[in-house]
Recover the amino acids of this structure.
């Protein structure tokens, strides 16, 4: 078997809550609570879930923008959780991030040229002329023109800014791109342009994507495999076709049925969930979803279900399939 | 004579800027019958929110100018006095805003905010108003309503706050509810709850709803009729089923095709080239012409009128200059 590009094992992120007059740790927000998955070379793994489920935190931990509380991350077979800051910075030339907010993630005082040149300087491209040329190339790759290099971020629209964000991530030829809600701030007609660009770039440069989003339609469109997160845990992961055609976990079923379909002739059976997502400070015992699950059984409130492979490549964490 | 619930005629809202007066909503006309749910769809900057603010009389008077007719049960709101508008707002026309996080006052309890409109419009006493508020909160599916009355907005989740907003909007039994992106800030499972609730209220109280959204899925699910706006103008109008099954304006066609369908995977998404023009940047011709794959010479020089079809659909496009024109949706489908 070929080695996966990224392998994550039992990853956890517990943010401490400080309280009291002495600022002692009084509890923790269990943003990500023990998840494992892998991303193969050249594929797109989609990570979906509602706000606060830990999908963005997971993306940031893989880049070690956040230090995981526990667990291991292997990048090309190498454990990167123990690398020093310096070594990690070198490794980051192979993994880059595209952020959600195209308005906040570009420095308003820098020209686009400078923004795109920065990763090249950081990663030690010494040749000044070569850097300038690379910037021009990058702009053309993402569908902008080389004269844009002297402009400032405020002179661009949301869609164009997201293209700049993508160009910046591509600057140093990474292998992995973590895209955290890259199209959710964009209008529908612009969103499809950016999605097509991401797909073209993947084909051309053989990129691997971790695509984090809450829009299930977008995730299906772009992903080869999809993982569903709920309250810091991975409840289901499978080939995307499989997951959408035959969702096994009751949460995935509810999530898929909740999406309004832009087709008037289509009538769907909708599972309406009651209540809100519980607080990650004090997640329910047993299965995290049992408080809202229409199919909850007795054991669900006591024993946390393990993620098990039910069918070829289709993993689910649910007691219904014990 | 029977009036429609609300009839907007040639609404033109413009804002004064350093470079002159810029029209953001441009000769928009539509109507709404009692109990009807109308969807207004468009991308950011198309003027859909400004349309609703104009109806509510909430366009700032120092920079904005509202012209045209907004007939609400036979009365023109565009010329109504501020005192009169205050009587109508929250009482006969209510609005739900997009941001449940910022549209509640953080310094007042939920109870105080919910009962305010009853106390002002109906002159109810505290006890009566409180009882009605609790009843309303139960109707929108908020458990432990009594306790919530004395809590502050920060103690509630996003979904709960949006329910409070809906309860607040519905408490005086308005005849028209304007919902401006009511579920955009919410997660899908919470969105499903809120949409279900709005449908129920529409059925049970016969409140007409004007649903402003960019999500075509929400429109398909909630609305009977829809209006598509682009750069301040209505480009297409019709029954939801007609517009979805045979969209006529190239923009509507593009919009419907650019949404990734959750049920099947397409090799490649259709995308409309270019970007939405800045308001006031283009004076001549059709606003959509620079992005349109079907644009002709005429589109660049002459603005098309909104033309009615026999089935009630209206389209603003020169492709249908003689009322017929090619069916571009079929050809777009077969080519993709």
């Amino acid at each position: 078997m070929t080695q996966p590009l990224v392998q994550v094992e039992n990853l956890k992120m517990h943010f401490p809550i400080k309280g009291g007059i002495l600022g002692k740790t009084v509890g923790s927000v269990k943003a990500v609570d023990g998840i494992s998955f892998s991303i193969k070379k050249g594929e797109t793994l989609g990570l979906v879930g509602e706000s606060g489920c830990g999908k963005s935190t997971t993306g940031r931990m893989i880049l070690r923008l956040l230090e995981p509380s526990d667990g291991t991350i292997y990048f090309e077979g190498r454990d990167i959780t123990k690398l020093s800051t310096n070594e990690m910075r070198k490794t980051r030339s192979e993994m880059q991030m595209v952020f959600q907010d195209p308005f906040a993630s570009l420095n308003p005082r820098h020209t686009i040229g400078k923004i795109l040149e920065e990763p090249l300087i950081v990663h030690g491209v010494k040749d000044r002329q070569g850097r300038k040329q690379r910037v021009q190339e990058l702009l053309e790759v993402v569908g902008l023109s080389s004269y844009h290099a002297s402009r400032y971020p405020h002179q661009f629209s949301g869609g164009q800014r997201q293209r700049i964000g993508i160009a910046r991530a591509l600057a140093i030829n990474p292998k992995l791109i973590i895209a955290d809600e890259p199209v959710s701030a964009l209008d529908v007609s612009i969103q499809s342009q950016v999605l097509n660009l991401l797909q073209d770039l993947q084909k051309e440069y053989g990129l691997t994507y971790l695509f984090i989003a809450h829009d299930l339609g977008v995730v299906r469109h772009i992903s080869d495999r999809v993982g569903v997160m709920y309250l810091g845990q991975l409840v289901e992961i499978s080939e995307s076709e499989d997951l959408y055609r035959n969702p096994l976990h009751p949460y995935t079923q509810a999530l898929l049925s909740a999406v309004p379909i832009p087709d008037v002739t289509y009538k769907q059976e909708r599972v309406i969930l009651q209540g809100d997502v519980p607080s990650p400070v004090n997640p329910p015992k047993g299965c995290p979803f049992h408080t809202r699950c229409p199919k909850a059984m007795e054991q669900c409130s006591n024993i946390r279900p393990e993620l098990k492979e039910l069918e070829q490549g289709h993993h689910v964490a649910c007691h219904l399939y014990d | 004579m029977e009036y429609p619930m609300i009839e907007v005629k040639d609404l033109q809202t413009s804002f004064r800027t350093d470079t002159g007066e810029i029209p953001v909503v441009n000769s928009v006309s539509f109507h709404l019958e009692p109990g009807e749910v109308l969807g207004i769809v468009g991308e950011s900057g198309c003027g859909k929110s400004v349309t609703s603010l104009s109806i509510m009389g909430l366009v700032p008077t120092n920079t904005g100018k509202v012209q045209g007719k907004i007939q609400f049960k036979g009365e023109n709101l565009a010329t109504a006095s501020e005192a009169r508008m205050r009587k109508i707002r929250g009482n006969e026309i209510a609005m739900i805003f997009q941001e449940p996080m910022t549209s509640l006052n953080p310094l007042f309890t939920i109870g105080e905010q919910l009962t305010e409109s009853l106390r002002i419009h109906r002159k109810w006493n505290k006890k009566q108003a409180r009882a009605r508020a609790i009843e309303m909160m139960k109707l929108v599916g908020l458990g432990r309503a009594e306790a919530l009355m004395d809590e502050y907005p920060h103690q509630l989740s996003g979904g709960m706050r949006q329910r409070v907003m809906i309860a607040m909007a519905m408490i005086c039994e308005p005849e028209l509810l304007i919902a401006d992106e009511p579920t955009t800030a919410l997660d899908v499972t919470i969105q499903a709850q809120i949409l279900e609730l709005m449908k129920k209220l529409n059925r049970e109280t016969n409140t007409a709803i004007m649903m402003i959204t960019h999500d075509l899925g929400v429109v398909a699910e909630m609305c009977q009729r829809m209006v598509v706006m682009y750069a301040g103008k209505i480009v297409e109008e019709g029954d939801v089923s007609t517009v979805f099954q045979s969209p006529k304006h190239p923009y509507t066609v593009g919009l419907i095709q650019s949404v990734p369908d959750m049920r099947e995977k397409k090799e490649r998404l259709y995308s409309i080239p270019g970007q939405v023009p800045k308001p006031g940047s283009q004076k001549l011709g059709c606003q959509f012409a620079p992005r349109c794959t079907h644009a002709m010479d005429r589109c660049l020089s002459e603005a098309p009128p909104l033309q009615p079809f026999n089935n009630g659909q209206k389209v603003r496009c020169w492709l249908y200059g003689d009322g017929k024109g090619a069916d571009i949706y079929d050809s777009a489908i077969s080519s993709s």
User: Anything to note?
Assistant: Residues 250-322 of chain A form one domain.
